[in-house]
Design goal:
Elements (H helix, E strand, L loop, with lengths): L1 E10 L2 E11 L3 E6 L6 H8 L7 E6 L10 H4 E4 L11 H11 L4 H10 L15 H13 L5 E5 L7 H16 L3 E6 L2 H7 L2 E6 L2 E7 H8 L1 E7 L3 H10 L3 E4 L5 E4 L3 H10 L6 E6 L2 H12 L1
Parallel strand pairs: 3-7, 3-8, 5-6, 6-7
Antiparallel strand pairs: 1-2, 1-4, 8-9, 10-12, 10-13, 11-12
This protein binds adenosine-5'-triphosphate.
Adenosine-5'-triphosphate binds next to strand 2 and helix 1.
């Protein structure tokens, strides 16, 4: 479990993180979402002790990350722009990390395979593509078999295969009971894997919400109605308080009245329905509404 309480960090006049509080629970993927510059990386850096907060606290498993005896075995971290010695091979890089934590060479081979780097293990990391470097970063994060995994924009630079790999990996890690916090600025990507969302803007928490709740909250934006009795329906719906727009092809776009009510109203007027389709507001739209209205 990760607990962040009233965390604040300023860089000069910029409040990168501003009184942020949240809890990241085990057994599910928590998406950490916010537009560029929202404060995601700074928050993650403070959780793992790389940036010092001006005020507030961040703990992992009940203690500040840096006070743990073997950080790599407690929290696996992938931060943007993580440095790898360019002259070392992927295997040498991981073996170097492993040695500092008493981790076996067998585990190094295991995470290389898990990251799809088995064939590139003995190539210099300096020659790696962005996607391969990301894979090596994830392999490093998982090396110590940590209960908590923090990944900053892990799909950056990955090809479709890599994106699919990350999605499956995140879900597997959560299913194993681990705490998984993964940042992104894209709702479309996060919605595929996350069970829970923390949405931030301007360093502040804008929403702490389950993905299912957000889908419900997004609600129905409008219903599409097709009927040979469109004129009858149009006036009946307007009288019932709906906002109705007639499309060029004769379809009606109906707002402000639920699909059930439209069906009932049509039946009472003996109007035939050929189509009655509720359209959900997209998660993307809900995310934009949250970040725009409260940022
Ligand atoms: N070392 C630093 N010095 C000065 N300002 C910084 C520093 N690090 C971050 N900032 C500023 O703090 C704010 C939050 O940045 P941060 O990188 O945490 O956002 P982010 O949500 O991770 O954005 P992105 O999605 O672009 O990575 C931004 O305004 C950024 O310019």
């Amino acid at each position: 479990m990760i607990e962040v309480r009233e965390l604040t960090k300023r860089f000069g006049a910029t409040a990168a993180v501003d009184g942020l509080s949240f809890t990241v629970r085990p057994g599910r993927v928590t998406g950490f979402l916010g537009p560029n510059g929202a404060g995601k990386s700074t928050t993650m850096r403070m959780i793992v002790g790389l940036d010092r907060p001006d005020s507030g606290t961040a703990t992992v498993g009940g203690r500040p990350y840096r006070t743990g005896p073997a950080p790599l075995c407690t929290v696996g971290v992938l931060l943007e722009g993580r440095a790898v010695h360019r002259g070392r091979t992927a295997r040498q890089h991981l073996l170097g990390l492993a040695r500092t934590h008493g981790i076996s060479a067998r585990r190094v081979a295991e995470v290389l395979d898990m990251a799809g780097l088995g064939g590139a293990a003995d190539r210099r990391a300096g020659g790696f593509s962005l996607g391969m470097s990301q894979r090596l970063g994830v392999a490093s994060a998982l090396l110590g078999d940590p209960a908590v995994v923090i990944l900053d924009e892990p799909v950056n630079g990955l090809d479709p295969d890599g994106v699919l790999w990350i999605r499956t990996l995140l879900k597997d890690l959560a299913a194993q009971g681990r705490t998984v916090l993964v940042s992104s600025h894209l709702m479309s990507e996060t919605a595929v894997t996350a069970d829970h969302l923390l949405i931030i803007g301007g360093g502040r928490l804008l929403a702490d919400v389950g993905i299912d709740d957000l889908i419900t909250r997004a609600g129905t934006s409008h219903c599409l109605v097709r009927s040979p009795d469109a004129a009858v329906l149009h006036s009946a719906l307007t009288a019932a308080g709906a906002t109705v727009t007639a499309e060029d092809d004769g379809a009606l776009i109906v707002r402000g009245v639920a699909a059930e009510r439209i069906g009932t109203l049509a039946a009472s007027r003996h109007a035939t329905l050929h189509e009655l389709t509720p359209h959900r507001a997209s998660l993307e739209q809900a995310y934009m509404d949250i970040t725009r209205s409260r940022a």
